[in-house]
Amino acid sequence: MSASLQVMDVVRVFGGVRAVDGASLEVEAGSITGLIGPNGAGKSTLFNCISGFLRPQAGRVLLDGKRIDRRAPHRIAKAGLVRTFQTPRALTRMTVLENVMLAAPRHGGERLAGSLAAGVRRREREVRTRAAELLGLVRLDAHASALAGTLSGGQRKLLELVRALMAEPRILLLDEPMAGVSPTLRVELLEHILALRERDGITLLIVEHDLDFVMRASDRVIVMNDGRVITQGSPSEVRADARVVDAYLGVRHEVS
Amino acid sequence: MSLLEVDAVEAGYDDALVLRGVSLTADAHEIVAVIGPNGAGKSTMLKAVYGLITWRGGSVRFADEDVTGLRPDRLTRRGLNFVPQTENVFPTLTLAENVHVSALVVPKNERRAAVERVRELFPILTERSRQRAGTLSGGQRKLVALARALVTQPRLLLLDEPSAGLSPLAMDTVLEKLVEINALGIGIVMVEQNARRALALAHRGYVLEAGRNAIEGSGADLLRNPQVAELYLGGSVTTASSSTSTSTPSGMNPDTK
Description:
The complex is a heterodimer. Chain A contains ten helices and ten strands. By secondary structure, chain A is an alpha/beta fold. Chain A folds into two domains: 5-88 and 168-253, P-loop containing nucleotide triphosphate hydrolases (Rossmann fold, 3-Layer(aba) Sandwich), CATH 3.40.50; 91-150, no CATH class. In chain A, the strands form two sheets. Chain A has a six-stranded mixed sheet, sandwiched between helices. In chain A, β7, α7 (183-200) and β8 form a beta-alpha-beta unit. Chain B has one domain: 3-Layer(aba) Sandwich (Rossmann fold). A six-stranded mixed sheet of chain B has the order 6-7-8-3-9-10, with helices on both faces. In chain B, α6 runs parallel beside α7. At the A-B interface, α6, α7, α8 and α10 of A face α1, α6 and α7 of B.
């Protein structure tokens, strides 16, 4: 069940700086959309506005046609929109596996520990199995029982992705999933991300600076600069756009 | 004798031993790239060298002196400085203040000249001297972090993923700046996940794997080495012609699909 997203004229100002300045975009259900732009263009702030971590000062955000811009982050997540953070947030004194299990929908740790009902135990087994499976995908299975605090920076990024997947999203917003990830794992992650759409029908909106990844993964690419969407189109259209080359790519990355 | 000689360092956090005997050398005229899988111990190695975590074994010599386990501020005064990946500027201070704070380790009579030199290298310090660092973009922040390290008049810089999170244009700017810095006779040891770019500008490179040295060589040799490409550079993903289907390295990691 893929979800669609509409962002209409969203504005977010920080002490006079218009971080997001009337941004509008649309993400089709079942698509993979890349969101690129220079550092400071407002991409992460827009992510925060969409996922409820910041309230837009103007504009609207619609998930499957329903407004979500006044909802709290956990309610938006429950509606199926889940996001990752550029700087991962793990509970460092819990194990890697526990971190993932906690992200499962509808099941707080208290209820897992507190009840002995057979149904709950079965659910816990399912959650544990799913968590272990997802950790295997990003090669963190060997670290499942280690404290999350012992993971390296790159490994924490992968944990963040697994936690997001555990929440069973219908649309997933990834904030720089490749930053700090080794080239070898990037190749594998690309395959996994494509599979999320193909197999699980998850809609994806991805902020990423690794252009090879963006160009390979995305159906459409949206470009932001100065808090606004300046252009969008297919990966090849965007790559050839003179404004994108000027503001973002630089001549080195220009298509010849 | 190299300027920096790291010999068989063992270090980690709490119960976890991350480095199991890593060795590395670097000279003032060199850019040295350190690459490897996530969790190989690359950042931990930089932190160990800069005295941020406790050593369990091995030694480090800098400028012909044993500096194993020396405090970071002492190392900075001796000419060895470290730029972390994040939290490398004071967000509530202006650019001028950020540089000033770093310059405090320089003898008072040399401070003005040190700041002046860094301002020449980084025009942004003059253009935005009164702007708070917290309002800068990611790429600009990286430049200010570099400037803060440079004003301490280092002979060698340890950099943790200088290009991470940067747009292509900003990445070019930062990497070009590193080459410029190196041309001044300042050595650079950088940990990078954008491994191809790093090796392309590095004189030498080290591959770390599971807390140990795996492969080393000149940057160009490592880039040409098919084993390195397959195991550590993501196969052929960045070359346009071939597909991404280059398989999981055999014997290294279990195929998890």
